[in-house]
Amino acid sequence: PAFLVCKTPTGEGDRVLLLLHEPGAGSNGVRLTMESALTARDRVGVQDFVLLENFTSEAAFIENLRKRFKENLIYTYIGSVLVSVNPYKELEIYSKQNMERYRGVSFYEVSPHLYAIADNSYRSLRMERKDQCILISGESGAGKTEATKKILQYYAVTCPASQQVETVKDRLLQSNPVLEAFGNAKTLRNDNSSRFGKYMDVQFDYRGAPVGGHILNYLLEKSRVVHQNHGERNFHIFYQLLEGGEEDLLRRLGLEKNPQQYHYLVKVVLTNTKISLLFHSDLLSIVASVLHLGNVQFAADEQGNAQVTTENQIKYLARLLAVEGSVLRDALIHKKIIAKGEELISPLNLEQAAYARDALAKAIYGRTFSWLVNKVNKSLAYKEGEFPGWRSTTVLGLLDIYGFEVFQHNSFEQFCINYCNEKLQQLFIELTLKSEQEEYESEGIAWEPVQYFNNKIICDLVEEKFKGIISILDEECLRPGDATDTTFLEKLEETVKNHPHFLTHKLADQKTRKSLGREEFRLLHYAGEVTYSVAGFLDKNNDLLFRNLKETMCNSENPIINQCFDRTELTDKKRPETAATQFKNSLSKLMEILMSKEPSYIRCMKPNDAKQADRFDEVLIRHQVKYLGLMENLRVRRAGFAYRRKYEVFLQRYKSLCPETWPTWDGRPHDGVAVLVKHLGYKQEEYKMGRTKIFIRFPKTLFATEDALEVRKQSLATKMQATWRGFYRRKKFLHMKHSAIAIQSWWRGTLGRRKAAKKKWAVETIRRFIKGFIYRNHPRCPENEYFLDYIRFSFLMNLKRNLPKNVLDKSWPTPPPSLCEVGSTAPGQMALEQKVIASEIFKGKKDNYPQSVPRLFINTRLGNEEINTKVLQALENEAIKYAVPVIKYDRKGYKARARQLLLTQNAVIIVEDSKIKQRIDYANLTGISVSSLSDNLFVLHVHCEDNKQKGDVVLQSDHVIETLTKTAMRADKVNNVNINQGSIKFTVGQGKEGIIDFISGSELLIAKAKNGHLTVVAPRLNSR
Ligand SMILES: Nc1ncnc2c1ncn2[C@@H]1O[C@H](COP(=O)(O)OP(=O)(O)O)[C@@H](O)[C@H]1O
Ligand SMILES: [Mg+2]
Description:
- The structure is a single chain.
- Mean pLDDT is 85; it is low at 1-42 and 270-277.
- The longest helix is centred in the C-terminal third of the chain and has 76 residues, at 699-774.
- The strands form nine sheets. This protein has an eight-stranded mixed beta sheet with strand order 25-24-23-22-28-27-26-29, with helices on both faces. A seven-stranded mixed beta sheet has the order 2-3-18-4-13-7-8, with helices on both faces. The protein has a four-stranded mixed beta sheet with strand order 30-31-33-32, with no helix packed on it.
- Strand 11 and strand 12 form a beta hairpin.
- By secondary structure, the chain is of the alpha+beta class.
- Bound molecules: adenosine-5'-diphosphate and magnesium ion.
- Adenosine-5'-diphosphate (ADP) is lined by residues 86-91, 138, 140-146, 190-194, 403, 604.
- Adenosine-5'-diphosphate binds next to helix 5 and strand 6.
């Protein structure tokens, strides 16, 4: 078979694309800066073999590895494949900070690392929701298991987590030491060699958090339980148990600390393996039982039948495996066969008994290991089914499987292991080389064949039906008659003698024959020649456990053993599959699993066989480079196109690098990409346009484009920031402007409305004023009331400013006509005048004067309606100016009688109801007498000549000051008011005289005294 290469010339290859296309600007400057950036990243050698100048030279390849290894740069890429060289020493590159450096970062931006591969797979898993797998290959001791652990740690640290997830993370990490204890052992190649294949799925939920896991284990090297090559050891767990087990525990298990005691353990000096034993006691019982089994010894009796000589072991075994001791003993030395429904029991000879014992030990250990894996799986299982039918998780698989192995003496196990590696190589070819070719074809890109070795021919040699080695082996195992390892070899020679990759002593030519024993066959693996010894092939393939031993185990009360040995096995008539066939089938299932996922590769190498740091054994490395197919890998990478992207994806990512495609390209993505790469200055040989994808030959080209994008992103970010800021400011400005306009218009409206209202008010005021002026002489009505009020207001305001300087000043301002009438008789003015007069008359002279001061004098105390009409008629035109109710004391008996006193223009009139009792013209009024005390009595003195007159009148008024003041004023007798102390004399008709005596006392009393005088007791006032 051949590989294809592009027809276009490959060009010098190391050119860097031009970023900028300024006319006239020399391209050299740009190229130089770009190249210096590149070399800065690849300070030691090249970090990607694709960049190697002389890519066909194995020496250059190894030199690059060596240079980097010397500087502790153990990782190098071939495109996206990671090559790792075991440093055999702790390097400071697995820190948490370093993990963070690789998180979410593009492949080319950081130096090569496991973490880059891990992160890349994880990101594809999250972005495309496509299952991933990381295939870690390399020979024993190359660092596969370490790499697996480091990747798991990377996910444990960098993936998002919830609390529940935390436990899954822990369990994933913790499952490792458990399985390593039971499945790893010290070999010549590796102190911690995995003696089983492991494929581990890590399940991630939609958020990218690890939520579960599953482990598939492959072909544990069980033979190690009963036999180890020189310098190797049994599985770690045995030593850990003996060395780390507490005395108590060991006693219970019937074990001694010294491994020398056990036939199954080689006599090696123990290393310090301090591992705390947290395993379940049932599990440790099983481990101990295997050691005890190894110490079971037999001796032959007379018939040559085996007998157990170590009863003690049987006792321990019975307890540890929880079986009947005698049953176990019998089962170890007998064989039970069921033929035609009949049970046949036959004794075993020594050799057979030892074989049966070892078979049991292997079976117990092997099955327990599977049980352990199952147990781990149960603890890692993720309960899906929140949304049945919808797979909510994606899976990332890690394959850590035994590497290609060549020993001095290679047996069935090596055959299986190396077959497995052939299969993986096939997968690698399938997934990378072949599929690549198919893609070029489907994309319509022309190719030219490139030679590469397809190892399918070897796979077929091993696994082909009927003609393959496994088929022939199975046939030998199953056929009746005496099949032995030798007959198997003969069959092989017969069937595949012409195969170019198969050789035996018989088939070899003279020269090679020397290197082959008669019991051996040689396979020319893709990775090198391996000579296998057929001894033990049949037994190991049969993996036979005698029926009675199986039965015994089925009856065990140790729960683990009980689960490991299923009763259905006993009744199943079908022959169990042979070990090789089982392995073949599980491998083919594994291939299916891997094929369905997107693979990433880590190719591990060991620098020397001595497990030493800083030693780079070129021969050993060359060998590995060869059988790992790294040179081929590189050749294909270089011949083909390193990168491909769908047009849409490519355009989306890089469109900002070209003005025509930025920010949007309206045409077909294909055309957009064409314009874009032209603008970027991609050379003809650097890329090809396929049907749906662009193919880029060198990573460098993409690398440079990525760099350009990085630069562009910076400027875009600045531009976007500026644009955004501008936009933001403008938005803010517009908003403010809008607000200002709103406020302005609202305010203007308010002002306008106010002004209009004012105008309206003014118009109305003026109109009212004019109307009022027109109606000014009308009685008060709605038309003039405003005007009149205004006139009054302004008159009063004017008055206020121009008040007369004293009360006697009569120069009163002229009131407006509407106020005139009121003005002349202004009560206030008159009252004030009267008050002044009253003060002149009485102030300081009469005791009750002060009381009258705060009381206003009023026009009259009696309205016209209170005065009899007859009186009014009698008075005719004579207007009553003042009227007040009074009490008259008659002249003889001083009887008190109610009367009215009226003041007219000309006279004082005393009225009794409808009768005018007495009329005193002012001219006849000679004087008025009053006491100085607080009483209200007064006497009107009348001219005596007038006959008509009845004499002086004795009266009493409640408003004596007011009544007397008004009377005095009317009668012009202000100066004739006498204020007397003691008594008052008065005339009572015809010259007779009467006397009123005034004294002060506690209360008012008016009565006729014995002496005929009227006595008035006036109360003393407080003011006196
Ligand atoms: N990256 C590494 N850094 C330091 N030591 C390593 C590294 N990888 C491997 N080793 C050493 O090499 C030994 C063998 O590695 P391991 O992963 O068990 O090999 P494999 O699984 O390929 O057989 C480890 O026990 C460890 O001492
Ligand atoms: Mg390993």
